Amino acid sequence: MQKNLMEAPAATRPASDRYKWTALTNTTAAVFMSALDGSIVLIALPAIFRGVHLDPLAPGNIAYLLWMIMGYRLVQAVLVVTVGRLGDMFGRVRIYNAGFAVFTFASILLSFDPFDGGHGAMWLIGWRVLQAVGGSMLTANSAAILTDAFPAEQRGFALGINQVAGLAGMFIGLVAGGLLAAWDWRAVFWVNVPVGIFFTLWAYRTLRDTGKRAGGRIDWWGNLTFAIGLSAILIAVTFGLQPYGGHTMGWTNPLVDMLIVGGLLLLAAFVVIENRVPEPMIQLSLFRLRAFTFGNLAGLAISIGRGGMQFVLIIWLQGIWLPLHGYDYGSTPLWAGIFMLPLTAGFLAAGPVSGYLSDRIGSRGMATGGALLFGASFLGLMLLPVDFSYWIFAVLIALNGIASGMFASPNSSSIMGSVPSELRGVASGMRATFQNSGTAVSIGVFFSLMIAGLASSLPHSLANGLQQQGVSAQVAAQVGNLPPVSSLFAAQLGFSPIQHLLQPTGALDNLTAAQQQTLTGREFFPHLISGPFHSGLVIVFAFGATLAVLAAIASLLRGGAAGPKQSITQGK
Predict the structure, then answer these.
(1) Pairwise CA distance, residues 350 & 338, whole Å
(2) What string of DSSP letters covers 476-501?
(3) What does the alpha-carbon distance between residue 330 and residue 553 come to, in Å, rounded to a whole number?
(4) DSSP states along 191-233
């Protein structure tokens, strides 16, 4: 029967043609929602912290903030390979459909937080973890479902739309989070519920498995060593960003060293296990494919650069540029998302076009050109003054978005097209792991570089600036010793840190009206932080440009389009 279907002329297969567009629509919505939730909370954090009555600058609460941002990405980075493997074994559509249901269920529970303070934050973090589990099941299998549904000549176009939906969701979430949080912080989670219910039911009714199943058993030891090892490293990153023992960051914390070393040892054990078990969690033989290996390495480098840039640009806009141009701190999160719309427009313009072109001219040249343009945009941003002209900024971030779109679609098409059909689920999961790990690690890398740039001069600048406005030396020194990470997060959360920190001390009451107005105004803190901040910007953007060059080199090394089965055989 299968043979007859394959031999049937195209005119007798209209349902199959309709099915591929159904699969594209549903998986694109899933990837968009999953990516949206990775960023929507970021911009809505001020309203969420107020809603559960958490002081964002209290030292113990920095951990809650970090986990609300990074916990979602950490879970996705850890689980996507596992659920991709489950998709290969039990059916990609079955795992995908279950993921939609889990994602929607967690979204409902997130909006009914019954607690306040730290307990309220833990409720949100816990259900965000479950939401990330559902998101992992969606993203790990969506690319494999599309690769099964579309013929090779249209695969790049389909994956390009899917990739652009994810990238666009990441940045549209910044605007959506600001708009919804202005109404009610719970609406940030409500928005997923009707969409999730509709697409869950539609997926169960229309999607079907069209690829081969690998069968077999679950590699429990491989799953455990991989999940615990990668989690330990990413958890170490969150601790490394927090102050420790009088240091501005926690990289000297013995716990951080233990987690990193332990995580690396477990990942090494994972590689040994995968080489010995009869049915491994991942197929290490896939790394014998040049297109698969170098495509994933290039994707990891671009992901680190893109994820770190997103946070740096938000802080730059919210903490310095917008206040200097007359925007209140309370409105800066929303406007930061709006002013970053050229980045999203670049994604939307370049992604589908590059996917379409890569189907005709090949992936390597398009992806390599995108990586080089990505690096050039970082160099342009590095040359901007802190108080820049917006149109130049808009052009540079639009170019960055175009570059990401040029890279993402051809790179994904090259990776997924290089593997055997029965391994597309695990290959999709491995690709998503590289991407999500890069995003999670980028926060730690870029923030560490930024904090290092701020730490040498920010305390002195803050203390001197406060004393010049009549604040006592003792209070000024206390505020000046605020960890730079707290200053960065205060700016990101749309808070005026000077007013927030001075008000409890009563120092403002002893100052003249003019001094109070200066200290609590829009320009005082941005002017103080602009010099140290620019030093950090130069470091992080130079690092981003370096990553882009490494991605371009890896993209060039991917080679031609050899058949996947042939390539694996030759690699043995």
Answers:
(1) 20
(2) HHHHHTS-HHHHHHHHHTT--HHHHH
(3) 43
(4) THHHHHHHHHHHHHHH----S--------HHHHHHHHHHHHHH
DSSP string, 262-316: HHHHHHHHHHHHHHHSSS-SS-GGGGGSHHHHHHHHHHHHHHHHHHHHHHHHHHH
For residues 178 and 2, the answer to whether their CB atoms sit within 8 Å is no
**Among 27, 214, 170, 189, residue whose Cα is nearest residue 105:** 189
Q: Would you state the pLDDT for residue 99?
A: 92
Residue 94's SS3 state is: helix
Beta-carbon count within 10 A of 313 CB: 21
In this prediction, residue 399 carries a pLDDT of 95
Query: Are 229 and 266 in contact, with CB atoms under 8 Å apart?
Result: yes
Place of tokens 């930061």: 336
CB 533 within 8 A of CB 487: no
Give CA separation, 20 vs 319, 382, 454, 526, in Å. Answer: 45, 43, 51, 51
Tell me the pLDDT tens digit for each residue of 165-223: 777 787 678 778 777 877 888 888 888 888 888 988 998 998 887 766 655 677 888 88
For 534, other C-beta atoms within 10 Å of its C-beta total 18
Q: Residue 10: what pLDDT?
A: 39
**Dihedrals phi, psi of 172, to nearest 5 degrees:** -65, -30
Please report the pLDDT score of residue 4 as a whole number: 42
Please, which residues bridge with residue 244 across strands?
247
Contact 411, 367 (CB under 8 A): yes
The letter for the amino acid at 533 is F
CA 258 to chain centre: 26
CB under 8 Å to 521, separation ≥6 — which residues? none
Ranges under pLDDT 50 in the chain:
1-15, 561-567, 569-572
Q: Please report how many Cα atoms fall inside a 13 Å half-sphere around the Cα of residue 483, on the Cβ side.
A: 22
Max CA pair span of the chain: 88
